[in-house]
Amino acid sequence: MGQNEEHVKLSRKNDSGAKGKMMIRFAKKSDLPQVNAIRRQVHEVHAEGRPDIFRGKFGKKLANLIDDMYEDAYTKIVVADMEGRIGGFAVLEMIEKPKSPYSKARCYLRVTEFGVDESYRRQGIGTALMNFIKQYAAEQDFDTVELDVWEFNEGARQFYESVGFQTYRRYMEYKA
Fold it and tell me: What's the pLDDT at 59?
């Protein structure tokens, strides 16, 4: 978390929505090993795309972070339950930024991690997860849903654009 950012607790009265054999819901502790299997796939994409930044191995410390996220009262993990098998997930974090000399106060939902299992891609899981997230954000009165995506990950960029996300800020680098 950056300076001047605070968490606000997330809550939802109805935690499931179904689409055929798919149920989008908040994760249970028992889902976390399957979520980590997808996180490993996502990490491998990043490690291959930017080996100068990402470690090649999805180690124990990285795997254990999911438990911390699950226990955090201000973070939610959403899963696509495919009749007992987790086909995709998203990690959501609520950010409240107070007004500053530069900006207005904002309350937004940040998607910090997102992935669909390789064996379930192109079956509508990512779109269903995003629809759930957007509905949740509207119900909880968040100003926006935000995420970041690595420039090398063209498939992810195209997906996020296809579900309504627009670029509003860019990070750039100069390699010395």
Answer: 86
